[in-house]
Design goal:
Blueprint: H1 3-10, H2 15-28, H3 31-35, H4 38-41, E1 47-49, E2 74-76, E3 92-94, E4 99-101, H5 108-112, H6 120-147, H7 149-168, H8 173-201, H9 204-231, H10 235-243, H11 245-252, H12 260-265, H13 269-282, H14 286-291, H15 294-300, H16 302-309, H17 316-319, H18 321-345, H19 355-364, H20 366-379, H21 382-399, H22 408-436, H23 442-463, H24 473-489, H25 504-528
Antiparallel strand pairs: 1-4, 2-3
């Protein structure tokens, strides 16, 4: 009897599962609030140099830039006890007395003057937040294997609540960056534990549905973020509003049971049995739960225990040829998806459309995008879908280079289309990667590839800085990487309607079966080309 069969005995889809999925899904609503928060808390409003103190009253004339617009980072040199210049000629100097901002919103940009030469610090803050997610995935994944999924989940909720609230009280940019790093660090623990606990406690047929539901919770969170940002114009109060609920989620997490497989693999059979009996009682199958015994549990999960004892590490993903081929192609696809996704998601203010409406549109496009992706991977296949969505996203990003900045509707439409394709790419990659890797290295493979997505999301804000050299350079880099990722997907095997591989030998058999299928038609064609011997004497 396998674990899914044991789960059927205690109730595979009863009241417990509905409560379990709900408790895991609620915190996902707030993930977008933190991932995309700087769209609103770090908005750069229109600004110009503040006039020197003790200047005479009168209109403040600004130098004009090469594009015919007033300079944002320069002002005319003003000598004491002289009037302000009233023309557009004269020597200029940096904004020595700060800036005047044309906004009613309070952001980190206006509070700490993150404009002009300090503008790069805003992008650096977002990159460090993404670095926290990356490092958190490495550290908390290891701690999760050692101490269990539930303790890491609860601690991650608490850390997110504390670091997010700490960010709201940051006295300087340095403190802000440190707290944002810790916030990103905690998000990895929440995501990793949520995925594992969801997959383990629901039946196989329900996994795709529950995973999709989690994806739509994240999408709904983007709508919530727009509403909160509109209602709360002060960045500190907005930061606090999206962080405090995680104190409540940490308390609710005590109702979430530990992973049965983790308890069994770590020798905690008695606790695993009590948990299963509790689930059976909750689902109205108390008698079935009481029939379970320690000996039966150990015997039926012997295969899981033996597979866990087979040690495979990160080096095996590159040492074994078939795994190396898959890892390199998948890594490029994951990197390019994270890289291009956050280039668009964090660049909302660049399109000149109302920030709140555009964020709702950016979030809303995920709904049809993920639905179409699910249909495509179910009928066309995984690797075709993965390649198409990345190639389309790359094409949309590159097309932005040729659309003038005054054509805001067309630029916005291309950006929304590209973002939808990249959302679909994420949905496809999570399923496709888990189906490609065999059980013995599945967690390791998922971790490595997710790492590359985090590297891409960390580098995306930094690449925007190259726009100071030439405005089109960032989109060239983003679009080209998406095209490369889509091309790499063509070299991956198809997994549609195939059982999950358990061992590395199962994956190797896929290659042999694929070669055999290709050789069959060639053999048939060769047999048809055999010349017939003519009748009669030679």
């Amino acid at each position: 009897m396998t674990f899914p069969e044991i789960l059927d005995r205690v109730g595979s889809m009863g009241p417990f599962q509905y409560l379990h999925v709900t408790l895991l899904a609620l915190p996902i609503l707030g993930m977008a609030n933190h991932n995309l928060l700087q769209i609103f808390t770090a908005t750069t409003p229109a600004h110009h140099c503040r006039p020197p103190p003790n200047t005479s009253a009168g209109p403040w004339v600004l130098p004009m830039g090469p594009n015919g617009e007033p300079e944002k980072c320069l002002r005319f040199v003003h000598l004491p006890n002289t009037s302000l210049p009233n023309d557009t000629q004269g020597a200029t100097e940096p904004c020595l007395d700060g800036w005047v901002y044309n906004t009613t919103r309070d952001t980190i940009v206006t509070e700490w003057n993150l404009v002009c030469s300090s503008g790069k610090l805003k992008e650096m803050a977002q990159s460090i937040f993404m670095a926290g997610i990356l490092i958190g995935g490495l550290v908390l994944g290891e701690l999760s294997d050692r101490f269990g999924r539930k303790p890491i989940l609860t601690c991650s909720y608490l850390l997110l609540a504390a670091s997010g609230s700490g960010t709201a009280f940051s006295p300087t940019l340095s403190f802000y960056i440190v707290f944002r790093f810790l916030t990103g660090f905690s998000i990895s623990g929440i995501v990793l534990s949520t995925v594992i606990l969801n997959v383990e406690w629901v039946p196989t047929w329900m996994r795709a549905i529950s995973s999709t539901a989690f994806g739509y919770c994240y999408t709904t969170g983007q709508f919530i973020l727009s509403g909160l940002a509109y209602a709360i114009p002060q960045w500190r109060w907005l930061q606090l509003a999206v962080s405090v609920p995680y104190f409540i989620f940490s308390l609710l997490s005590w109702w979430i049971p530990e992973s049965i497989r983790w308890m069994v693999l770590n020798g905690r059979f008695s606790k695993a049995l009590k948990t299963l009996q509790h689930v059976a009682a909750f689902n109205g199958k108390k008698e079935e739960g009481e029939k379970l015994s320690l000996e039966e549990l150990k015997f039926n999960l012997q295969k899981d225990i033996s597979l866990a004892k087979t040690k495979y590490g990160t080096t095996d993903l590159f040492r074994i040829p078939i795994l190396r081929h898959m890892t390199l192609c998948l890594s490029l696809a994951w990197f390019s998806t994270g890289f291009a996704y956050y280039s668009l998601a964090m660049g909302v203010e660049e399109f000149g459309v109302n920030l709140y409406i555009l964020q709702i549109i950016f979030g809303g496009v995920d709904i049809p995008a993920k639905f179409i992706t699910i249909l495509s991977i179910s009928y066309l296949g995984r690797h075709i879908t993965q390649a198409i969505v990345l190639l389309l996203a790359g094409g949309a990003i590159l097309a932005l280079i040729f659309v003038p900045s005054d054509m805001q509707i067309l630029r916005t439409a291309l950006a929304v289309f590209g973002k939808g394709c990249l959302s679909g790419s994420f949905s496809c990659l999570f399923l496709y990667t888990s189906e490609l890797y065999p059980t013995v290295v599945r967690q390791t493979g998922m971790g490595i590839n997710n790492l590359w997505a985090r590297v891409g999301s960390m580098l995306a804000p930094l690449v925007k800085i190259t726009g100071e050299v030439k405005p089109f350079i960032p989109n060239v880099i983003y679009g080209t990487m998406a095209l490369l990722g889509g091309s790499a997907a063509f070299f991956l095997p198809e997994t549609l309607n195939r059982p999950l591989p358990e061992t590395i030998e199962d994956v190797q058999n896929w290659r042999h079966q694929g070669k055999a299928r290709k050789q069959e038609p060639e053999a048939e064609k060769a047999s048809q080309r055999i010349p017939l011997k003519p009748c009669g004497p030679q």
